[in-house]
Amino acid sequence: MDEEYDVIVLGTGLTECILSGLLSVEGKKVLHMDRNDYYGGDSASLNLSQLYRKFRPDQAPPTELGRDRDYAVDLVPKFIIASGELTKILVHTDVTRYLEFKQIAGSFVYRDGKISKVPSTEMEAVKSPLMGLFEKRRAKKFFEFLQGWRDEDLATHQGINLDTDSMKTVYEKFGLEPGTQDFIGHAMALYLDDDYITKAARPTYDRIILYTSSMARYGKSPYIYPLYGLGELPQSFARLSAIYGGTYMLDKPIEQIVTDADGKFVGVTSAGETVKAKQVIGDPSYFGASADGKVRVVEEGKVVRAICFLKHPIPGTEDADSCQVIIPQNQVGRKHDIYIAMVSSTHNVCAKDIYVAIVSTIVETDRPELEIAPGLSLLGPIYDKFVDITPLYTPTSSDQADNIFITRSYDATSHFETVVEDVQDVWKRVTGTDLVLKKREVEVTG
């Protein structure tokens, strides 16, 4: 292969596919390679045979689960926040023309041994069992304060400075109980742990406003989800890249990342042939051995995920056909939250009357499966279960000098905002400019 590319992208995870699509649109000559014979990398959606082959190579899928082609089971469960950054990228690139979205029916939080709906309207807040009568009044004042905040109008600040005061100070000002702080911080601001409480309140304010504006957009929940599973997302960006001249090669084992005497990227060797390019972007799994010291395991280390097939909706969720349930760490004596994401045949990801629930968290002990037990216990009888423990990798440096740009592993969060942060970070390092997006709406069915 004598042809030289501007960028070679390794791995077809969502992060890599978004970058390859965006770079192709910018006129870059992109070659995209993946060792797998399917799109999506770690964030793929697998059919029934692929799922059993991955976790239980010796076992065929049970016939009672239905047809292979009815399944698109996500390996990494995440929902799209309706007003979030991923939505902006989908709209900006017009990738929405390849996708159809459906709403997630409800967002729930675990408190004092039971599941309650995260209030989505004032009426729901008034009826919510999450707070007593007086606490509801305090919470109402807190939300009115957030909604009424205007940076330029000191009268709306009530003596608070979002950039210097901690979130603890804000909670204390409104006298909010620890349980209320839990559901605001974890089910609305979507923090994985409580570190945010001692930090400046501005990011939390931004996250809560994002949640409430997403909720207001379609009602029911702030989340949307693509029909046929999350694997549709990388494929759609791959189509976008192809339209603009990008080249895709699946099932290409990568033998070597080639660098020159100064350690600068030169090309990629596959099947004995080396393709040259100016830059390479890839997921961490491609840089383990060949680019020594390029990636490290992050402090939190690993994510445990259990993919569960159920024959019923999750009890206590009002028979929702899809939902998110967050178990704040305080409720179960942990450092990190536990997430449950459930979808069903309504989203064309499994057979009729089957529900797919995925329970995940950051690993804290040497018995990861035991750590997700509080989540598994909420699911009711489980028909089948596949447990996966994945290391979390991050690049060791953001230095552009070697022209090697490595993305981060997918974390335990139940949404894509951290993935987009990674896209924006890599984009800036590769191009030297900020990623600027247009604002438009996404159409959602149901």
TrEMBL record:
<dbReference type="GO" id="GO:0005096">
    <property type="term" value="F:GTPase activator activity"/>
</dbReference>
<dbReference type="GO" id="GO:0005737">
    <property type="term" value="C:cytoplasm"/>
</dbReference>
<dbReference type="InterPro" id="IPR018203">
    <property type="entry name" value="GDP_dissociation_inhibitor"/>
</dbReference>
<protein>
    <recommendedName>
        <fullName>Rab GDP dissociation inhibitor</fullName>
    </recommendedName>
</protein>
<dbReference type="GO" id="GO:0016192">
    <property type="term" value="P:vesicle-mediated transport"/>
</dbReference>
<dbReference type="InterPro" id="IPR000806">
    <property type="entry name" value="RabGDI"/>
</dbReference>
<dbReference type="GO" id="GO:0005093">
    <property type="term" value="F:Rab GDP-dissociation inhibitor activity"/>
</dbReference>
<comment type="similarity">
    <text>Belongs to the Rab GDI family.</text>
</comment>
<dbReference type="InterPro" id="IPR036188">
    <property type="entry name" value="FAD/NAD-bd_sf"/>
</dbReference>
<dbReference type="GO" id="GO:0015031">
    <property type="term" value="P:protein transport"/>
</dbReference>
<dbReference type="GO" id="GO:0007264">
    <property type="term" value="P:small GTPase-mediated signal transduction"/>
</dbReference>
<dbReference type="Pfam" id="PF00996">
    <property type="entry name" value="GDI"/>
</dbReference>
<keyword id="KW-0343">GTPase activation</keyword>
